[in-house]
Amino acid sequence: MHRSWPFVGRREELALVRATLRDPRVSGLVLAGEAGVGKSRLVREAVQELDERRYAAQVLLAGRAVADVPFGAVAYLLPAQLADVDPRLNVHRWVADQLVATAGERRLVLAVDDAHHLDLATAAVVAQLARSSAAFVLATVRNSEPAPEPVTALWKDEVVERADIDALNRDEIGRVLEAALRGPVEKGTRERLAALCQGNVLLLREVVIAAEESGALTDEHGIWRWSGTVAVTPRLVELVTNRIGSLDDEERHALEVAAFGEPLGVDIAAKLAGLELAERLEDKGLIVVGPDRRRTNVRLAHPLYGEVVRAGCPVLRARRIQQQLAEAVESTGARRRGDVLRVCVWRLESRTASDPDRLLAAGRQAWAAHDIGLACRIGRAALDAGGGVSAALLLSEVLNWAEQYEEAESVLSSVATQPMTDQQRMDYVTGRVQNLSFGLQRLAEADALLAVEQTKISDPAIRRQMSSYVANHRFWAGDCAEALCRSQELIKQPAVTPAAEATVWADAALSLSHSGRSDDAIAAIRRADETSEAWIHDLPLVRLILDTARHYANLFAGRLAEAERAASDVYQGTWDMAVAASELQYAHVARFRGQIHQAAHRSRAGAALGAWPSFLLRSACLGELAHATALGGNAADASKFLAQADELWSPALRPFQYWVDLARPWVSAAAGRIDEAISLALRIAASARRRGFVGIEVLALHDVVRLGEADLVTRRLSTLEAHGQLVRICAEHARAGEGPALDRVSKRFEELGMILHAAEASAQAATAHRYTRDQQRATMRALALAGRCDGARTPALRALHPPNLTKREREVAQLAATGFTTTAIADRLVLSPRTVENHLHRVFAKLHITSRAQLKDILPD
Prior knowledge:
Helix content: 55-70%
Distance between the termini: 42 Å
Largest sheet: 5 strands, parallel
Oligomer: single chain
Strand content: 5-15%
CATH class of the domain at 11-164: Alpha Beta
Shape: flat
């Protein structure tokens, strides 16, 4: 860990210091904010960048230790002894003169950190120097503490400016983290740290240092990721305790109740700690009381207060408080949905959990919230408490998604011979088949189990649900056509329950999205969403399937903005599977846009998640990483990533395996093996066609077009045109053998936001326009588009022969293409208008064009 953190996220504030220093109308700037937001660091950075030829900076040492000592903050700058002291000496004037004398001919800058701790004598001197303009005062004060009257009078009288320094926002926290750790930070880690530290850089630094030292924050395959709990170190305790301040025993007890109970209804807080004590804590700024729907809740004023208070509470007292919290909320009926889960956690922590039904209800809520660790813990407790088959089914499902496959199999095997209802039988079969196939890779055993066990279910409604699962199973096994056929049959049958109906529509949407029927998939998703309030809390996987289907339906249709929004909806910060799926989907969108660096970053982040090596989506993420890397022309690294993806190949997730397969042609192409790349793309297309994955087939067929052999796939792409606008453009690309047609295709791809595809079409147009005036125009357009693709080096782009424009000619041409007048270009580049016109004439001659309007086609914005 780099103990001296980089200075990030305060550019505007530093610019304000510079501007104020140059303003002759003011004599200083006071930076006000809460402790730890970065005021002191801002002052240090501002002082360090001062021009020593013009300014002399002196730092005043304010602090509690010298707050009552006259001139304590400035004593070290004064002579050790006074000679020939005149009893009539104006001490304040003498101290001021001594400080000014240290600057010589330069302007004195007084840097006063924590000016609210200045002794009155020093505060008076500082104010005197500011009012007389003998010094520029750069000071910090804490919002929550009163400053000496001479200091506050400075900004009230407008002698100095005052600026409030806010906590850093989430984006700024992300930049601070990546600069401090010298590498990218996983999204969930950034969000968790930002929420925990509330934009306070001092606290952030301590939490990060503690997390790295404890092993909770690690660099996993190039991405920093935090897992586990907050490491409460002595240094963090000291910082937080100082913020909390001194408390008597009653106040500390009230704070502990809030720490274990938040958010806690004010009535419960009053019952367990006393309303008067709650008021005292609110007055001290330690708790916040506010409305939450129909309740008034108590929360701690900062998340880290809770971490430190809970860590410091003795074990038996912590258990007693949590038992009291559970009993208090239960006495009110635990009416809110979240109450069931909170009471369960308190019962577990206080060793008083014994009701299996309540544990099961809480476990289902934890699973619905994607809190995998807590759901596993509750599931085990429910099984131990006698929850029987229901507890085993819940626990095994969560264990499966937690990648603890052997334990999940053991739990399911333990109840295999116990009596079950039809619903339990279906849950047992689906859970075990999923665990055997996805987790343990025993597909034959899973298929045999499914064939036998589904015949034991007699209830027609549950048999329909079982059939829906079979359709889903066939999809993931790689038979999209059969899955879609089964789903369509089920859709025709009458609805039973909203949950069962949503499951059918979700499975149908997944198959439809990959079958090239994007609009039908979106319609199916809407049907499921119509009843979402009835099932959303009980079927967390259905929501994930629907959002995944929505992403792929839009991706295969070329609707990239909608596909990106769906990827955002897939993200669930506490569940690695959903986070990885989201990162993979973001990577797809980025690559389609030609943002190959972003695609590589997203896919690398997805590959860093989950347990190694079993994590289900790691292979697909590594395949996407190989794809993006190959598009950048790095054949060696792309081959390495592809090999890693192949090592983790899972036959149970065939649809995701296609994203690995789609990388293969481009890895070969990056190595110069174009014929091999084309052969691989054709094989992928044939496989996808046999299995009904029309979306994948179209991408593979179009890869052949991009690699220069459109004639091989023109007929097949033309037969698929009815499957959406992206397919139509791909088919047009295959048919476009001449330059003008390729120019039109390029513009169509650009309209979709598929910039790399547009660049490649323009590059092919340049070849088709050979020996004509349009060749240079198409070449320049291809180069300009490729310039937006992070240095992509595909075969089509490598074949370009750039026109011989100088750097200055390119600058002038680009500005002219975006609408700048000759005068505006001259002002921007500090040239004469005549020189600009001369450059443009040479550009027109080299590109064989005659007007600025033609430049816009060649050099798009």
